[in-house]
From TrEMBL:
Belongs to the polyphosphate kinase 2 (PPK2) family. Class I subfamily. This is ADP/GDP-polyphosphate phosphotransferase. InterPro entries: P-loop_NTPase (IPR027417), Polyphosphate_phosphotransfera (IPR016898), PPK2-related (IPR022488), PPK2_PA0141 (IPR022486). SUPFAM superfamilies: P-loop containing nucleoside triphosphate hydrolases (SSF52540). The lineage of its organism: Bacteria, Bacillati, Actinomycetota, Actinomycetes, Propionibacteriales.
């Protein structure tokens, strides 16, 4: 795809200048999509899955960078509590589903069960099999209820994952991103591939198909994912018109002396 295209460097990766220009355009379109979702009362659920360091967090950050958190919100659930472990597996996710006029971005999701939990032995084989049976039905229920379900799987090669993990390890300010789970995932790369293939076999359904995002080139992956997301909606420009700012009302009031307030030191 790169060839002699000036947008790409000698390694075939998208240049920063081309990326920045297109990202700015796409983020403007995301704001327009946001207004459309609000005006139409749409319920949109976007699932982001994939290996550690594959780039899920990066694309989520770019989607939400210029949109309103009241309309486009992130749901990144922590480990389940002891109480949640006794609930129906999907129960704790249900409360985070979108209402009318909302788009929810699931930073990892119920697919933890068929990937991390299964590979690491955090669930039983029976629980894994039950998930594979019930997940497609659960998602069909969501779609029938009027929720738009989009599922993105970010795919990164073993070589690129190693490079990204090593980059985190080399930089002290980023080392917090390299967790014990990341190290285990690196060691069990093949097992995670098996888990992903099994997940797709059962849950790549017509009503909510998986969309794979090759992400060795992070910049291209972000643009491709956001472009595809936008293409799923026949949205129109319903952005509100420019408003007239009111003049400040002249209300009799004497403010207390400024010296009675405590200000932060003016270092700059």
């Amino acid at each position: 795809m790169a060839g002699d295209d000036e947008r790409y460097n000698s390694a075939g990766r998208l240049r920063r200048s081309a990326y920045d220009t297109e990202m700015e355009r796409l983020q403007e379109q995301l704001v327009l999509l946001q207004y459309w979702i609000q005006s139409q009362g749409l319920k949109v659920l976007v699932v982001f899955e994939g290996r550690g360091s594959a780039g899920k967090g990066g694309v989520i950050k770019r989607i939400t960078e210029r949109t309103s958190p009241r309309t486009v919100r992130i749901a990144a659930l922590p480990r389940p509590t002891d109480r949640e472990r006794t609930q129906w597996y999907f129960q704790r996710y249900v409360e985070h589903l979108p209402a009318g006029g909302e788009m929810v971005l699931l930073d990892r999701s119920w697919y933890n069960r068929s990937n991390v939990e299964w590979v690491m032995g955090f669930c039983t084989e029976e629980e894994h099999q039950e998930f594979l049976r019930s997940c497609p039905e659960f998602e069909r229920m969501l779609v029938r209820s009027g929720i738009v379900v989009l599922k993105y799987w970010f795919s990164v090669s073993a070589e690129e994952q190693r490079r990204r993990f090593e980059a985190r390890n080399d930089e002290p300010l980023k080392r917090w991103k390299l967790s014990d789970m990341d190290l285990a995932e690196r060691e069990l790369y093949v097992r995670y591939s098996m888990a992903k293939d099994t997940t797709f076999q059962y849950t790549d359904i017509k009503q909510a198909p998986w969309y794979v995002v090759p992400s060795d080139d992070k910049r291209a992956a972000r643009l491709n994912c956001i472009s595809h997301l936008l293409s799923q909606f026949a949205y129109e420009d319903v952005a509100p018109p420019r408003v007239e700012l009111p003049e400040v009302r002249d209300i009799p009031y004497v403010r207390p002396p400024l010296h009675e307030q405590t200000f932060v030191p003016q270092v700059f």
